Each structure stands twice: as structure tokens, then as C-alpha cells.
Amino acid sequence: MKAAGRFVLDSFALLAYLEDESGADEVQEILAAAQARRAQVWMCSINLGEVLYITEREASLEAAQAVLALVDQLPIVVVGPEHPLTLSAAHIKAQHAISYADAFAVALAQELDGHVVTGDPEFRAVERLVPIKWVGV
Fold first, then answer.
1. 102-118 burial string, b = 16+ CB within 10 Å, else e?
2. What's the number of domains the chain is made of?
3. What is the pLDDT of residues 47-100, one digit of tens each?
4. Of 2, 57, 89, 111, which is most buried with the most CB atoms under 10 A?
5. Which secondary-structure segment (H or E) carries 117?
6. Which CATH number does the domain housing residue 128 bear?
7. Is the pTM of this model over 0.90?
8. Residue 106's closest CA among 30, 37, 46?
9. Distance CA 132, CA 125 (A)
């Protein structure tokens, strides 16, 4: 992959990678490009929180803690929802049939002029707002 640019992972993409599901190879390629400094990978802490609660619910608190430790080792910049990002996400949620957490991924991709990386079909509702890098579909 000759990835260049900025990518924003949503929870679907990170879970696919972590659980070696459909799309994992594509996410791995993006992460490898980031490791080689050919791309930048970002994630909003809201979306990371989704990954953690799903992991804890489906496995255990210890598994969620292990996921967090792994994510800390990956070339992913995790950002908190500052006030402007929150306002953008709220506006996106108000205007489009997308979850509030997913609206943060869209808002962050808009802010960074990047692509959302996902396989979640819910993002079809916002394809006109931000480029989507579809994985596992």
C-alpha cells in the first residue's frame, strides 16, 4: 500500500484489526504506512471508548485494559473531543442518520482533511461530507 495522507479510525476498523476480522489486513496496511511515516492515523477518544466498552462487555475488563495497552503502542494519535470537535460532531449528528460516536470520527476527519476508515454501513449517510476508506466490505 502506498498510503499517504491522514486516516481516522472508527471503532469498526479498530475492532476488525484487533479481532482479525474482515478488513484487518487493510487496517494493518494503514498502520504499517503510519509506522513508516507514509501516513498519519488518528482516532477520537470517543471511538476508542466504544472499542473498550465492547471489549469489556464481550470479554472482560482485563481484555479491555490489554486493548488499551496495545493501542498505546500503535502509531495512532488519540485525541480528546475538544469543544470545537464536539460542536461539529453534534451538528453532524443532528443532520445525518449516524450514531453520535461515529459523528466524532466524521468531524475529526473533516478537521484533519482525512479519510474515515470503516466498514460500518452507517457511514454511507455521510459519504458526501468526508472521504471513506472502506475496509472489510
1. bbbbbbbbbbbebbbbb
2. 1
3. 999 999 999 999 999 999 999 999 999 999 999 989 999 999 999 999 999 999
4. 89
5. strand 115-118
6. 3.40.50.1010
7. yes
8. 46
9. 11
